[in-house]
Amino acid sequence: MRQTPRPILTAAQMRAAEERAIDAGTSVDELMDRAGQAVAEAAWRFGGTRPVLILCGPGNNGGDGYVAARYLKQRGARVRVAATGEPGTAAAINARRGWDGPVEALDAAEPAPTLIDSLFGTGLSRPLDDAVAAPLARLVAAAHFAIAVDVPSGLATDDGALLAPVPHFGLTLALGSLKPAHRLQPAASHCGKVIVGDIGIVTSGDCHELGQPALRVPGAEDHKYSRGLVAVIAGSLPGAARLSATAAIRAGAGYVRLHGATGGPDALVHLATDNLDTALDDARIGAVLIGPGLGRDAEAKRRLAAALASGKPLILDADALHLLGKVGLKRLAKLDTPAILTPHSGEFAALFGKAEGSKVDRTVDAARRTGAIIVHKGADTVIAAPDGTAIVAPPASSWLSTAGTGDVLAGVIAAMRARGMEATEAAGAGVWLQADAARRAGPAFVADDLASYLPGAIAASL
């Protein structure tokens, strides 16, 4: 059974969810007690019986820390608490009263093997004072294992920015729901492993984490066309299109035509591009991929025009995005079926400008403006649809930062689209499968290697 995709909430959305819980009869103190229990459970599971130092701030995040200290002490853990000062909210004051141990000054605290950062968490909007940032960095560096409560102190919750230098944590316990900072860079790389602590709040929203796809095993009635016919259009650099075509056929497409290039697996069908309009006028084609290695000359423009006029589901990548340009984006909204665009950050900026907001906000805006599915690639890949929904992928292998991996991704997405998936689902499945193939490939792979690991990734998703 596949796990239900986990929502990703901004700080304001999380506060609204908490307010709904309070309006329904759950007190702030009860929510804090649940949060503290979740923190204590995580510290106990991941830190064992090692001594614990909990750093508490003045707000409710600090209150969670005082509650966690109480529960850990009840379990027999050796717990110390250090704070920036006295708590400043009613619930945090009550939580402090429930802790019967001493409270040390943050700047004078000595390290402990397990460190819990319960200083500020979600909603921070300004850099940490040096009086807080310096001891936090010192104590995290000296700990064997460091846990952040909700988000590491010093991160911007909604856009993943670093408000100040932030230590790297081994574990972040997201309270109630994932936040954008847990998945957007550069913040995500400081969070370590992220787990969600259930505090009894119902959460939902338009953004969620990418989950593993549920693929279908071909049935007895299936054949090469029902499993999906992909047309890949090559250009002046045929190797890139060949990578895409190879990935498409390895990802389970029943039939892949490579127009304008040779080589690759013998199962690929090679066709010329002289009569491209006629070749694309084939009702059996489930997806057309164009862009990898296409070039930007007059012939490339002709081939792109044929693809746009084909009426087939489109995947546009690389050079196709450059040729499309800002003017051509208006054509996408007029297509009968939404196209899938797969820009990296440079291509995205060239097409859509450098708008304000988080990567999620900017990608959603681009999808709405074009009527297309946007796969905004990177270490924090975001997928957005014209209806305002967004999906953020979990962290993938950093070894994907090598030439050609985007061509592979485009081919996998094309295979998923050709087999009948709707556009957003196909984009998500492609991103997941490429990441899983990269994990299986291990370090220092080249893009050519990825295709051979796709069957294993697909087998795990059946």
TrEMBL record:
Sequence positions that bind AMP: K377, G378, A379, D380, T381, G406
HAMAP family listed in its UniProt record: NADHX_dehydratase, NADHX_epimerase
GO molecular function ontology, one term from the record: ATP binding
Pfam short name (any one): Carb_kinase
Family: In the C-terminal section; belongs to the NnrD/CARKD family.
Cofactor note: Binds 1 potassium ion per subunit.
Name of the gene: nnrD
Protein name according to UniProt: Bifunctional NAD(P)H-hydrate repair enzyme
Function per UniProt: Catalyzes the epimerization of the S- and R-forms of NAD(P)HX, a damaged form of NAD(P)H that is a result of enzymatic or heat-dependent hydration. This is a prerequisite for the S-specific NAD(P)H-hydrate dehydratase to allow the repair of both epimers of NAD(P)HX.
Every YjeF C-terminal domain range: 207-461
Annotated keywords: ATP-binding, Isomerase, Lyase, Metal-binding, Multifunctional enzyme, NAD, NADP, Nucleotide-binding, Potassium
GO biological process, one term: nicotinamide nucleotide metabolic process
Names of the cofactor(s): K(+); Mg(2+)
